[in-house]
Amino acid sequence: MRLVHAASLAALMMALTACTSLYPWVHEPQAETLVETAPVNRFESVELADAQTRVPAYADPALNPLRSATLTRFRSEKEFLDWLTLARAAAKARGVYGWHDAMPMMAMAEPAEAEAPGTESAAPVADGAMESVTVTGSAVGESETNPEITNNQKAGVDEGGIVKQIGNHLVVLQDGRLFVTDLMPGGKPGLKLADRANVYRSSNEDTWYDEMLVAGRTILVTGYSYAENASEFSVLTLGEDGKVTRDATFYISSDDYYSGSNYASRMIDGKLVIHTPIYTSGRGWWDTFDPPEIREWRREGPDGEREHLRGQPLFRAEDIWMPVQRVLEPVIHTVTVCDISGVTDASAPACKSTAIVGSEAHEFLVTKDAFWLWLSPSWSERAFEVDEAAEAVCTARKSHAPLREVAPSTLVKLPIDGTQPSVLGVRGMPQNQFSMDMDAGTFRAVVDWHSDNCDGPYGAPATLTYFDTPLTALSNTLSDDAGGRYVPLPSPGTTDYEARFTEAHLVYGAREGWGSWAPEEGEEPRDDGRAIVVPVENPTWPITLTVPHDVIRAERAGPYMALTGYRDARGLSVSLIDLRLQEPKVSGTFVMENRYESENRSHAFNSRIGADGQGLIGLPTVSRSEESERWWWWSASSDLSYLQSDADGTLSKAGDLIAARRDPNEESPTGYECEVSCVDWYGNARPIFTGGRVLALVNSELIEGELKNGTVQEVRRIDLTAKPD
């Protein structure tokens, strides 16, 4: 329920004032009567037309009543639930039954009676109206030093990782524990274990601790708790002496956030930013609105038992933006920003959530001021009875499909400050976050480009298109027409590819297949790879380069784009593309004999290369090709291998820092035992360049090297599993 709109009330008061001025005598004003009016439920009596199966769901006018092309919120819980019931009925009419129908994400419960003290719920506003929201509290530790020591995608947006720096201390997250190393013991360069602290409170925890963020001296560890059916966030503080103290633990209801390539959490200006997709397919028969909750940690009993109490909702139904797309399997995409300063176990942080309904198929990019969602139709929303003649034309086509045959997607901007989203109708689908970029007022992407009139042969080379749009093109209304610019790009020549943006270029390269493993002995050498360099200011003039290997990784390295891959069983090949030149070229390729890349995450690669083109590249490798699969759960030890680049981009070997490879089944010489979170889902090796020093995290060891005579030579190392002094 809500009162008459304030604007209407103000108009009424002005009218009364004007009427009063007509009377020359004094009179007693009559008391106003405020009438509570129930918000109109737009879906209470809606009947959907029969589905038109000769068009895909994303184009079916029968679904028009379930979307709002102009951004508008649901008006009540009842309206949201009625809409959801209709959406599920529309899906079932097309034969769509998701697994979520049988396995709802969260148990149904009574709604909370009061708003959470640590959450803000947006006040009701007129449909489509702009809303300005400021997250309360101040950013924590802005004056402290947290250099970006990992390979983040966007400057100023720290990604959840396994190693961070706070002042002169390095903090490593492994096995649900924090290992703190003093980089300047006694004021001199060195390595000294300062502390080891459990993030978990009990060895009975069924939680994976995956990501760490820092802001000033505050540490935030993200994990997923299956016991709580929620993401767990632990807030800790690192003292000047390198000792860790616990501040708080809180939970946000969610499915498991894990991704093999992306990162679940970000830190922007000292505030936590997370994306929580809420799958609604199992909610069509519920009669109670059940949003995700934020709740404090609850103390355990003597045997580790924990009373599961309800928290407070992150948002109300009235806060959810309706879909601008036609969807059959709706997902509530939620972006939550939390100020973690001053939190305790008894007080969850102040958080603000923005929620919008969209398709299940999505990719996201996080920049300093916004969370960008690219929402594409899922398979069920694309399926339809294709006309045989149209399918024949599509199958015979050798060029890019016309715009009209490509499924419509939606680009959504969700501002970090919580103000109203904006949208743009687009086409195509990026393969991951690295296929998107936003810089200098322009959003860019490289997208897969397919006609919905035919599937194309299995294993066919990828058809790609360059997309860009000025940010001013986004608005509060979605047009079914495609916005932005679309430029056909050369195919990489393979189905799979790797792509990265710089401020001035897009580079993508041909990947042999989905896997990352090296060729076996005796296997035929792979074909030369293809790398395409696209100047973002003039994407109609791409440059196609030949590289002597396939491409399993593409990363920025100073003024270069670094590509890694394999040609044969000799070892990993690394090539540099010099982007400083008017016409970029491959400046050098080096084959790392008997060395094979062991991890696939972007954070596993790092470089320290100046504007002059000189510097170092580091990445984890192993000496056995059978360990080169780069699986996400790689938990064994890698070595750190280094290459040196000279001013013209020529590469040379710069040595290895070798891990002490121990049989994980043997007892540790330090007596160390893992209790919780004993699989390294994010890998465990990181090359680190900080303060002019060269460091290598290799499993449970931290090694320091020094570049002498063109080779990184070991200076010192410590075993993180040893007991601190």
What do these coordinates show?
The protein has 725 residues and is mainly beta. Among the domains are: 1-109 and 118-130 and 270-301 and 308-340 and 349-489, no CATH class; 490-593, no CATH class. It contains four helices and 42 strands. The radius of gyration is 28 Å and the shape is globular.
Mean pLDDT: 85
Bin the helical content: under 10%
Amino-to-carboxy terminus distance: 62 Å
Quaternary structure: single chain
Q: Structural class of the helix and strand makeup?
A: mainly beta
Stretches where pLDDT is under 50 for at least 5 consecutive residues are 1-29, 99-144
Total count of helical runs of at least 4 residues: 4
Total number of beta strands: 42
Rg computed from alpha carbons, rounded to a whole number of angstroms: 28 Å
The outline comes out as globular
Strand fraction band?
35-45%
Q: Report the sheet with the most strands, covering strand number, pairing sense and barrel closure.
A: 7 strands, mixed
